[in-house]
UniProtKB/TrEMBL annotation:
InterPro entries: Cytosol_ACT, HOTDOG_ACOT, HotDog_dom_sf, Thioestr_dom
Pfam families linked: 4HBT
This protein's record includes keyword Nucleotide-binding: no
GO biological process: acyl-CoA metabolic process; fatty acid catabolic process
Gene3D superfamilies, per database record: Hotdog Thioesterase
Protein name: Acyl-CoA thioesterase
Species this chain originates from: Paenibacillus lycopersici
Superkingdom of the organism of origin: Bacteria
GO molecular function: long-chain fatty acyl-CoA hydrolase activity
GO annotation, cellular component aspect: cytosol
Family named by the database record: Belongs to the acyl coenzyme A hydrolase family.
Taxon lineage: Bacteria, Bacillati, Bacillota, Bacilli, Bacillales
Length: 170
């Protein structure tokens, strides 16, 4: 399977923040932003693997600055690293005040997707090649995040063993 440049997976989305998009703090709903993040990440994934894929985990969403109704929100996503069938996707969220032009990194996120074949089985994906300094840094640090992700998943499974699956009304 041929490798692809990370730039081939890069996607962009820009949206204006409207009054119906904000919470009681007059900032963008976190869930709305998370939906945008999963959506754009899935497009980067499709650009790489050209097959069906599922979100395996949202490893982190770090909300760094509030996004207000006077802002436009821009998302950029790209694949930072691949395993055999898994893909790590980085999403950068930039808010831009439409009145002043001031921009900030408002949030960052890492997600993991798994490519599936026609039988919904994991299928191999191309490896990615970083070119820019940003891509290289994310690529070089991906293995560390992969190990953290595996450890967290193991801990989550152990924790789930202690949780009840009955409903309170039963």
């Amino acid at each position: 399977m041929e490798s692809k440049f990370i730039r081939e997976t890069r996607c962009f989305k820009v949206s204006r923040v409207f009054p119906t998009d904000v919470n009681n703090h007059n900032t963008l709903f976190g869930g709305k932003l998370m939906s945008y993040i999963d959506d754009i990440a899935s497009i980067s994934v499709a650009k790489l693997c050209r097959s069906s894929a599922v979100t395996a985990s949202t490893d982190s969403v770090d909300f760094l600055y509030p996004i207000r109704p006077s802002d436009a929100v821009s998302l950029e996503s790209f694949i930072t690293h691949t395993g055999t069938s898994s893909m790590e996707v980085f999403v950068k969220v930039i808010c831009e005040d439409m009145n002043s032009g001031t921009r900030k990194i408002a949030a960052t996120a890492f997600l993991t997707f798994v490519a599936l074949d026609e039988n919904n089985r994991p299928t191999p994906v191309p490896q990615v090649i970083p070119e820019t300094e940003e891509e290289k840094k994310l690529f070089e640090t991906a293995e560390y995040r992969t190990q953290l992700r595996k450890h967290r998943r193991e801990e989550s499974k152990k924790f789930a063993d202690y949780l009840l699956s009955t409903y309170p009304w039963e």
